[in-house]
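Side project, low priority. Logging it here so it doesn't get lost.
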Amino acid sequence: MGERILLVNQLKKHFHVGKGQVLQAVDGITFDVHRGETFGLVGESGCGKSTIGRTIMSLYETTAGEITYEGENIHTFNEAEKFAYYRKIQMIYQDPYASLNPRSTVQEVIAEPMEIHHLYPSKEEQLDRVYTLLEEVGLHRDHASRYPHEFSGGQRQRIGIARALALDPEFIIADEPISALDVSVQAQVVNLLKDLQTQKNLTFLFIAHDLSMVKQISDRIGVMYLGHLVELTDSADLYDRPLHPYTQALLSAIPIPDPDIEAQRERIILQGELPSPIDPPSGCVFRTRCPKAMAICAQEKPVWAEAETNHYVACHLYK
């Protein structure tokens, strides 16, 4: 495993939502990402995954904790340092329809970050770079003069990927980049990201709720629930031996393409509704839906600990 490039340490991000209420979107999360790897971050909608990505991008200020990139706290950067940081780290957004300006051509969409950072002295060099990026993501240079509405969802996401690559970043946050795409296109986009990672030595934070797809691209996976990280380990270990009851339930929902095995498999059905992050449960936040909840789960917050070698979990079952 390569050197650590990103450290998220005890990160909290809370939002004041009026009437004295505070939404605890992210509440004390710690993980790191190593250069050249893909770190998957999974969980139900509303668990705080995208908030973490946007906070790493410095679009949100932290409530507590810190984020360090190459050893530097990103929230202490001055304007010049932040400008340089944005060249190193870019984001691929979830919605390929809303993330592209409908009034700009593909050429203008991809070239905009180059112009902001003054990368190329001439328009010719800039256009050559746009053509190269389009070809790298599986499109054609003739597409540069078209508008986003002329493309399919998968093609628009490829344009979004080209834009993310425009500044030659080393770290990319992929915020559910395939969730809005047809199933037939999702694998193509994932394979494209894997190829680009190999070619350019990119590091990915891959945010998603589809565990089956995350397995195909991630080296390590962190599982989130209601603003907390509940389990983290290597991708293969997580699928072979999930420890946290929430992870076990998520994995049991993934269909197996063998009718005989699928018929014999026991599905774990979680009872109850997802609690509100404005008023989370005491102790373990998962206890209200956990089939293995004990009395201590309501009284004490579980400690984040290494239950097995390189396998971390926050659960009273593994004290």
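Brief comment: The mean pLDDT is 92.
Revisit when time allows.
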